[in-house]
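The authors assume throughout that readers already know how a fold can be written as discrete tokens. In essence, backbone conformation is discretised, so a fold becomes a row of integers matching the chain in length. A single example would do more here than another paragraph of explanation. For illustration, here is how one protein appears when written out as sequence plus structure tokens:

…
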Amino acid sequence: MNMLFWLRKNLFSNLYNSLLSVFCLGFLYWAVKGIIIWSFTQAQWQVVQLNLQLFLVGRFPKSLYWRLWVVVGIITFLSLITWLCLTKKPLLIKKKIAHFLIPLIAPAWLLSFAINIWLIGGGLGLKSVSTNLWNGLLLTLLMATVSIVLSFPLGVLLALGRTSNLFILRWFSILYIEIFRGLPLIGILFLAQVMLPLFLPPGLRLDRLFRGVAGLVLFSAAYMAENVRGGLQSIPRGQTEAAKALGLNTPLILILVVLPQALRAVIPAIVGQFIGLFKDTSLLSLVGLVELTGIARTILAQPRFLGKYAEVYIFIGFLYWLFCYSMSLAARNIEQQLKS
């Protein structure tokens, strides 16, 4: 009865809604049926099966796959610990242990970030792996993670600079933000790849990955600054005045009072920026970096896989959606925990 009442109220409340609902349901049935038939009878998914390793890790040496598994294990372990500590009803960790671990989560993630880079790239006792062999989803995740980690604090500093009373600092931040927000990302990436080496001393040449990260960070930080500035403007002036009355200096007021509230208020915008940055890594294929989209183009250039565009791009589209939705879901859970 409840289901029939819901259908009558929302889909068949009058003649117009009834006709529109029937048309939409018919269109959905036709579309879903066509997709299912194509997926199981016409699509040639062998192109994905035969190139799965290329999609995921590119040309990373097979003999060193154990390093990548260690990286996956570290990330999985920290993600599990983080989720168990932040949830209001820990399943496997007692509350006292959770309260002890929560302050250690951020340093643990930063330490794991350095360890994972070391495991992937080698050095310091491990065999080095050239960045030319970092391809596919591995490179996409790496570039996105590094860019997010670097652009977030830079964006916060720019937002604070734009709201500062210091004339030079404020106008430098405004000039930076407006210039980089007014330029297309692909243009910035080309400038980072072509123009940046011209400003370096002779004999010093940055790796293409570093130049790609530089372009993504410089671009994303400008948008991140505006998101954070919106959060800063939402904080009532009375919060700052009360903190000053308690004897706190300006740095402590920002760190302990203003920024926590401002960042909490703009979590959806920040996560949206992170998701956009993750998808923007696909533009790196236009400047010679073989990330997920670039490896797809390389596979499609092989004679035996010519014309398999739908299968390949549906697969990489699914991978992009999976990681973007995971970030959105994690942000939603964090919002719920902070509100409760």
User: Anything to note?
Assistant: The chain is about 75% helix and 0% strand. The longest helix spans residues 309-339. The chain has a mean pLDDT of 85.
